[in-house]
Amino acid sequence: MGIKGKLAILLGVILFVTICGVAYYYIFEGDFIYYTQIDNTKLEQIDSKGGVIDIHGGMKYEYTLTMYDENGKSKEIKLGTNRELKEDAYLKVNYFFLRGVYKWEEIQYNDLPNKVKDHYKDTVD
């Protein structure tokens, strides 16, 4: 085998390892933190269709909210709940692209990253 063949194999192995590393990160480590404010006009009651896989996770309600990462970049994300949440409450949300929101907690305005606060500064009392 010539040098070109060995180089092609080496490049193939490097590419394969890189793809595996990126896939591992997004599958097992790739959760993201977002911040949002509850707007109950964005609440929708959902009906579980039952079956083997319930895509709503057994939740009765779903919010579709604009959420921001720590750099202030926005993303529209659906958040399932079993109840209506407190209007104007701020949430810290853990989001995974395959599962959606899997954890959230209410936080205070002062706990928001500065670039997220910029989006909500007009709503602070």
What order do the helices and strands follow? HEEEEEEH
Note poorly predicted spans. Answer: none
Q: For the terminal residues, how far apart are their CA atoms?
A: 73 Å
CATH class: Mainly Beta
From the alpha-carbon coordinates, what is the Rg to the nearest angstrom?
A: 21 Å
Count every helix, treating DSSP H or I runs of 4 or more residues as helices: 2
Largest sheet: 3 strands, antiparallel
Please bin the fraction of helical residues: 25-40%
What structural class should be given to the helix and strand makeup?
Answer: alpha+beta
How would you name the CATH homologous superfamily? Protein of unknown function DUF1093
What's the short version?
Helices cover 27% and strands 33% of the residues. By secondary structure, it is an alpha+beta fold. It has one domain: OB fold (Dihydrolipoamide Acetyltransferase, E2P).
Give an overview of the whole structure:
The protein is an alpha+beta fold and 125 residues long. It has one domain (31-123): Protein of unknown function DUF1093 (OB fold (Dihydrolipoamide Acetyltransferase, E2P)), CATH 2.40.50. The chain has 2 helices and 6 strands. The chain has helices at residues 3-29, 114-120; strands at 31-37, 43-45, 61-68, 74-81, 90-96, 100-107. Strands 1-5-6 form a 3-stranded antiparallel β-sheet. Strands 2-3-4 form a 3-stranded antiparallel β-sheet, with no helix packed on it. A hairpin with a 5-residue loop joins strand 3 (61-68) and strand 4. The radius of gyration is 21 Å and the shape is elongated.
